[in-house]
Write a structure and sequence with these properties.
The complex is a heterodimer of chains A (about 425) and B (about 130). Chain A is mainly α. Among the domains of chain A are: about 1-85; about 105-225, no CATH class; about 235-310, no CATH class. Chain A has helices spanning about 5-30, 30-50, 60-85, 105-115, 120-130, 140-145, 150-165, 175-200, 210-225, 230-240, 270-280, 290-300, 310-325, 330-340, 345-350, 360-375, 380-390, 395-410. By secondary structure, chain B is α+β, with helices and mostly antiparallel strands. Chain B has a single domain (about 1-125), classed as Dimeric alpha+beta barrel (Alpha-Beta Plaits, 2-Layer Sandwich), CATH 3.30.70.1060. In chain B, the strands form 2 sheets. Chain B has a 4-stranded antiparallel beta sheet with strand order 2-5-1-6, with helices on one face. A two-stranded antiparallel ribbon of chain B has the order 3-4. The chains are: A mainly alpha (about 425), B alpha+beta (about 130). The interface of A and B includes residues 151 and 393 of A.
């Protein structure tokens, strides 16, 4: 398939914009203004490149045009100050060249650290990352999150304002802070992936493929920080999860549980890549939550039939994951794994004590429903499925839970 | 998280006169307040949609019928106070923020510039599940 010239320009722009933004932000020391300038330069580029052909160095072209805009902006601000305070204008930084190869990894990380600044809400960090790092337009991001473009534009501009007001200098943070910031970056990428993966089961056509964008971002982070096992682990996790996508919903977008999925539809190439990355990450000997989740996904990927699943191994991995995260949701999954290994009573025992922590959470009820059904307590299972259906905020999931309860109500076993 | 904030015709205190009995200034103040609230939500990156619905007099109740031509009942209806007057859809960080916005909507000025105390129904729009 040949790409149309406009597609080609778009692809090039997305790649070059990130590099240009890093270079311009570093040179002028101002992320927020640099982001504006590069966005404007991208608009110029779309027009000029399609009319006059591609420049020799697209990144260099963007840097040049964006820098000129930055310079103009500083000049006009200086002129305004001159008029107001009659002070002399200051020397302007020269336009930077395209960065040398080795610098790019650091530049990318710097950009991501800015976009995932701790002062930002997750929604703002997600929007900014998609624009500044993934190179999506505001319109595309707005469409992906089903909000008007104006709303998304405001969200992004407020995020940049907050970063500016935080007064943080644009530079690589100290080691300890760096670890924390990388964790935020991975979290933001994972949130984008989840958003995309979840809607892929629905029928919301026309939404940008956020799961694919998250994987792209995951690759960018992995390239920029190849020695970070959690960055590698997250990429592995996303690939292993994405590999199951073709099998996880029926033609109407209704969810299909892992047990009932047609495993021949799983994408072996993606899961193979995920497993190789996971092995690489685990080889570094610093286990973390993404690597553990990827390891669990890899166990499922290995099983060509549900009954070949190594639940004992999965149970052990959930145990480790619970230790690492302290997340009660992980405890639920561990209970399911325990039931698979030692029977439903063992799973039920693990659920005890979670009522308080997970009060009102549908997943506590759906987990209990599954275990009760397995034990043969159909009446109890129905009540728990109904409760879970009332509490979920997700439509395909509510349909699934409702059908589960309905089947038991009719006296039939759930398939 | 997306929420729909719904308001019905009847959701105001019993003694609230219909809008046609307000002064034009009071009506303007009410409309301006609602527009300003939408602008504020948009500026904060939280606005999705806001619509008023036409009056209950124009409403139709439709039921499918075996004969092939549906049974259509035209308004007005005696229970028109239960009908929806309008809605806002917002995209916010938390349910607390949704409640705050609903309270702001409920405080829109009515007769005498006093908050109208419209009851706002806050409903979360179903969305994406989180992976575990």
């Amino acid at each position: 398939m040949t790409r149309s010239p406009n597609n080609r320009i778009e692809g090039l722009l997305r790649e070059s914009a990130r590099r240009a933004l890093a270079a311009v932000a570093r040179r002028f020391g101002d992320f927020a203004d640099a982001e504006d300038a590069v966005q404007e330069a991208m608009i110029d580029a779309t027009r000029q490149w399609s009319a006059q052909g591609l420049p020799e160095s697209p990144t260099g072209w963007l840097i040049h045009v964006a820098s000129r805009r930055m310079t103009d902006r500083i000049r006009s601000e200086a002129a305004r100050r001159d008029r107001e305070e009659a002070v002399a204008g200051e020397a302007l930084p020269a336009a930077p060249d395209a960065p040398p190869e080795g610098r790019e990894a650091d530049d990318t990380l710097l950009l991501m650290f800015m976009c995932c600044h701790p002062a930002l809400t997750p929604a703002s960090a997600i929007a900014l990352t998609l624009r500044a790092v993934a190179g999506l337009t505001t319109a595309e991001i707005a469409a992906a999150f089903l909000v008007p473009e104006q709303t998304m534009a405001q969200r992004i501009s407020r995020a940049k304002k907050m970063i500016k007001e935080s007064g943080e200098p644009l530079g690589m943070p100290a080691t300890e802070e760096r670890v924390e910031r990388l964790r935020s970056v991975l979290r933001v990428v994972y949130l984008i992936f989840n958003e995309g993966y979840a809607v892929s089961a629905g029928s919301e056509l026309g939404r940008a493929d956020l799961a694919a964008e998250a994987i792209r971002l995951g690759r960018i982070v992995h390239l920029a920080a190849p020695a970070e096992p959690e960055a590698t682990g997250l990429l592995a996790l996303m690939l292993l999860t994405e590999a199951r996508r073709p099998a996880r919903a029926d033609e109407h977008g209704e969810l299909i549980g892992l047990e009932e999925q047609d495993r021949s539809l799983w994408d072996r190439e993606l899961s193979g890549e995920g497993r190789a990355l996971l092995a690489e990450a685990l080889g570094r000997g610093e286990v973390g939550e993404y690597q553990l989740q990827a390891a669990i996904a890899a166990e499922h990927a290995k099983a060509l039939l549900p009954e070949e699943t190594d639940w004992r191994e999965i149970l052990a991995l959930y145990g480790l994951l619970e230790q690492v995260t302290g997340n009660p949701m992980v405890a639920l999954n561990r209970a399911i794994a325990a039931a698979m290994v030692d029977g439903p009573a063992a799973g039920m025992a693990l659920l005890e004590g979670l009522d308080k922590q997970l009060a009102g959470h549908h997943r506590l009820h759906s987990t209990r429903a599954h275990l009760l059904e397995e034990k043969g307590d159909l009446r109890g299972a129905i009540a728990e499925y109904e409760r879970a259906a009332q509490l979920t905020r997700n439509l395909p999931e509510r349909n699934y839970l409702t059908k589960r309860a309905a089947r038991l109500n009719r006296g039939g076993q759930s398939s | 998280m997306k929420f729909m904030l719904l308001q019905a015709y009847g959701g105001v205190p019993e003694d609230t006169p219909p809008m046609t009995q307000w002064t034009p200034e009071e009506i303007d103040a009410h409309i301006t307040y609602q527009k300003d609230l939408n602008a504020e939500l948009s500026e904060r990156g939280e606005f999705v949609d806001a619509r008023g619905l036409s009056a209950p007099e124009l409403a139709k109740f439709v039921v499918w019928d075996e004969s092939g031509s549906p049974v259509v009942t035209d308004g007005p209806f005696p229970e028109s106070k239960e009908l929806l007057a309008g809605y806002r859809i917002i995209d916010v960080e938390s349910v607390e923020r949704a409640v705050e916005i609903a309270a702001q909507g409920s405080a829109a000025p009515g007769p005498g510039g006093r908050p109208i105390k419209q009851v706002i129904e806050v409903r979360e729009v179903m969305g994406a599940p989180i992976q575990h």
